[in-house]
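During data preparation, a discrete fold description was generated, as reproduced here:
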Amino acid sequence: MRILHFLALAARMHWASPRDVLMAVAGFALASSVLTLLLAIPSGLEKAAASTGRPDVALALSAGAFDEATSTLSAQHLQLLGSLPAVARDEHGAPLIAPHLIGRTTITVNGRNRPIQVRGVDPMTWKVMELEGERLARLVTGSRGLLIGSWAVTPPSSHPVRVRAGQWHVAGRADHDGSLWDSEYWADLSTLQADYQSPSQFSVALIRLNAAADLPALREAVREDPRLSGIRIVRQSDYYQLHTQWLAELIRSVSLVIAATLGAAAALTIGNALSTSFLGRRRYAATLRAMGFSSRTLALAAWMEVQIIGALTCCAVLLLVRVTLDGHTFAAASEGHQVLAQLDVGVGAAAVSLVYTLLLATAASVVPIWTLSFGILVDALGADR
């Protein structure tokens, strides 16, 4: 009951003189908002990666390749892969294998260069990935049209897109359901091969499995064939998650460092505001102690007050950030090209921000609470305020 009385007094004092509590709120708001936004970036990357690829599709690339762009496959590799028993087949008995060629281009928009990954695909991609046929209609074989991912920057209409020696135009936009492919340009495979002067070379191959559980069988079949010794098989969905995980972890680590630095500065601001606020209740607190109110209980009441202020501020910030910025597109550089994703202010980012704010409240309130609850009683009783 005494704790409630102390909290009620604190509420009345904050209402009557809000300057000190507003300073503390500003410190909590700044620290929690920055951390929330920083954590929303890796969360958005991981969400985009999780939406890319299928578990029943394998990705074949050269064993020494770091990523798709540095991989090289030959037509013979595709033929050998298509003969393996774990590979699914269409109604005509043809293996469901879709070769891709990965290229790069740079688009200049508003004076800034944007590196874009260009993916050459053929009609088999639509069968392997079970994509909509309307995309195929806009990507005619032999044409120089580009399908622009829904998040990718649109090139200026007055300038053609140059990829190696060829010039391309925008044939339309494609929505890949929030996947990493929304950052790319898709082009006709045969035309892109001609621009790269490599008509029989590919970067990777998408292989549809009879079932998702057949991936180990496919890997074993590749290992047993010496002609495929330079081929590495990974699950398509796992590949994209692994290749964005390092970037997400890097951003998350940098975020925590920034949060720690900013938290130290915020703790000083919040601590000064709390010291001024508690100073106004010093005589009241001393009176309670003289009447038998233990210092530990008084410290607990003050700590609860600071925790409530921090928690309410953090919740308000999380709500504001989610309403205004959740789903906002951002760009990050990955493996030589621009990756776009959407800020994801999810449960994970919110939980970390809340815990961070509560820890910040504890750190900032240690000295003010100690002075209020464990200071010399006689001095506190004789305080002017």
In short: The CA atoms of residues 286 and 292 lie 10 Å apart. The longest helix spans residues 236-279.
